[in-house]
Amino acid sequence: MSILIKNGHIVTASEDYVADLYIEGEKIVAIGKNLPMQADKVIDASNKLVFPGGIDPHVHLDMPFMGTYSSDDYETGTRAALHGGTTSVIEFILQTQGDTLRNALKTWQEKSIPKAVGDFSYHMAVTDFNDDVAKEVVEMIEKEGITSFKTFMAYKGALMIDDGQMVQLMKVVKEHGGLVTVHATNGDMIDSLIAKNLAEGNTKPLYHYLSQPEVTEAEASARFCDMLDYTGCPGYIVHMTCEGALNAVRKATQRNQKVYVETCSQYLMIDASLYEREDGAKWVMSPPLREKKDQEALWSGINQGLVQVVGTDHCPFTMEQKAMGKDNFAKIPNGHPAIEHRVEFMYSEGVHQGKISLNKFVEVCSTNAAKIFGMYPRKGTIAIGSDADIVIFDPNKKHRISVDTHHMNCDYSGYEGWEVQGKTETVLLRGMVAIENEKCLLKAGDGKFIPRGKSSLVI
User: Fold this and answer.
1) How far apart are CA 306 and CA 287, in angstroms?
2) pLDDT tens digits for 335-360?
């Protein structure tokens, strides 16, 4: 199928102009003014923004966690992502401690390949590093196109590896051109504070936040940076929430280290005061929401180039699942629904309110993730030869977020009634019309696995 997009205001991470786009099959074939091509479908994008499909590098779909599973699977999650302008996601495969990476990969392939509506790739979470796993890490990079490896500095007994394992993993990953990502919080300190609060009868959601003070994240981020410096491995800190952790990275960059940082849309928008509400469980996630001063630091970090990516850490649970912790905050499944709203939020809260430029918006929502995770220039830009992952966006349309209208498989919204400036109108995935007139035209299985190469972003 051929598609001609006319008169769009095209925005990339580095460019901003009005032109036509001509698409044949899965690829962008021509860009220019008044293109003469005839096409099977013509879309008038006058007065609309046209930018590359969003890439969310931090989602959890059908993930086993805390005795249950996240409520979005690959079908509902990637469909919701498309509705919001995100065309590709990177999900986390979780190695079971004592088992192999290969078996974990097989499990996630069975979950994803038949169901994905949008494109996807994987990070491999290493939870039990040893000599055999080291060999598998090399296989994942060289044979499977999985070049990023997630580690946890918390969740002892389930996901956490110790610093010795971390360093050895970094050495292997560096040698073979991969990247180590981390959940950087001090698990031992957090576990101690949780136990202390529960012993004192402090069971409400507020104590989830108070058991993970800023220092737990700042210390772990600094320690991770020190290990990267020692091994020479490139690293990526996921879901950064606070000024203290950002300062640890600022110090690392003075050593000319390659440390990438991701924050999430919720940490830029909402704060820890929500934990004092009766329905505070809705916002229980790890790391927790922080203070307004941390929001300001993160927005500044984006503009300073210290924060390269905005993801979601999308990990939704229903209110029935959240109620597992009604008498004990430590049993509330961690996570909240966000995959559908990230792009619109970043335009409304960022561009519309003057916090970031249009180019920076595209950079943090798409291009930098593509570069860091080895998908560029196939993904993350509008260029001849790139995949035709395109968002046509109406910057003038206002709408309100609600559980009644979102497409995520979750029975509440953490942003109920929030007014948003700008709306995703039409979405193309590899030249296929995915979203049009607020309907998804693709089906389960239309999404493809995207194998990845080495990072190409220089900081």
Assistant:
1) 19
2) 999 999 999 999 999 999 999 999 99
